[in-house]
Amino acid sequence: MPQPFPTARRTATNRRMCVVLAVTILGQHGWIPNANGFGQTGHRAVGHIAQRHLTQQALAAVKAILGNETLAEVSTYADEIRSNPDFDYTKTWHYVNIPNGKNYDTAPLNSDGDAIEAIERFTKTLRSKNATDKERVFALKWLGHLVGDIHQPLHVGRAEDFGGNKITCKWFGKSTNLHTVWDSKLIEATELSDTEFAKVCDKASAAEKQKWQNSTVRDWASESLKHRAQAYKEPLPTTAGSYRYSHDNLPLVKKRVNQAGIRLAGLLNDIYGK
Ligand SMILES: [Zn+2]
């Protein structure tokens, strides 16, 4: 007969493991759970919109880097590698924490990196004449993803609630959290595919497009910071209130996905020539 594992000890061990796990997962600065930025549909829609607004030269450059893959296809790469511990060092790149009343310049800097720093870094890599092919592929995949992330208002988050991850709510009867609602639930509720969602969003006028593209990554983050107040506005989504929350907030999500796509195109057009 195998000896039964002592219950008390198992409980204590489990508790200790949970604490260790929690500390490991959350990290020093992190809000790791569900810090995915727009879900797959949102990220792919950003990629579709961007690809549609590239100049001939930029499109050729993107194809030379990505081969047969499109910006939409590689837009979720940065989330896919999260399960691989070799890429743990990239976890803080998906977001930036800025406390209420501060801006990026006055907020504490995360020494592990953040979304703004990473977008600026990868832009430099793509502009560099000395980058290797491998570095360009990595940079472009990340850039396409992070321009989406930085437009999700809760990715310019408050550290104390992990960008809304700690705020639980109900979405059509199921428990979730505010961050996930903004990452994916609002978009998923439309039941549109990524190409369909891209089409629904991609309706900027030429003037809007020009205005949106004439801005920096720090401007995009400042906009998200401003918009995030809307995400926290009561009442938060409840089972009965999910339609209402969607009605009030989906227009902003669509606008942010569209701006991300148009601006990703603008950035790549600027890098590779107009
Ligand atoms: Zn992300």
Characterization of this structure:
- The chain is mainly alpha-helical and 274 residues long.
- It contains 12 helices and 4 strands.
- Strands 1-2 form a two-stranded parallel ribbon.
- The site of zinc ion (ZN) has 7 residues, from helix 5 and helix 7.
**Which sheet architecture does the biggest sheet show?**
2 strands, parallel
Shape: globular
How are the strands ordered across the major sheet?
A: 1-2
Secondary-structure element pattern, one letter each: HHHHHEHHEEEHHHHH
Whole-angstrom Rg: 20 Å
Provide a brief overview of the structure.
Helices cover 58% and strands 4% of the residues. By secondary structure, it is mainly alpha-helical.
Summary keywords:
274 residues; mainly alpha; disordered N terminus; binds zinc ion
Describe the protein's topology.
Layout: H1 7-26, H2 40-52, H3 56-66, H4 71-74, H5 77-80, E1 96-97, H6 115-127, H7 133-151, E2 156-157, E3 168-171, E4 174-177, H8 178-188, H9 194-201, H10 206-213, H11 217-232, H12 242-272
Parallel strand pairs: 1-2
Antiparallel strand pairs: 3-4
Helix pairs in contact: 2-7, 2-9, 2-12, 3-12, 6-7, 7-12, 9-12
Zinc ion binds at residues 36-37, 78-79, 94, 145, 149.
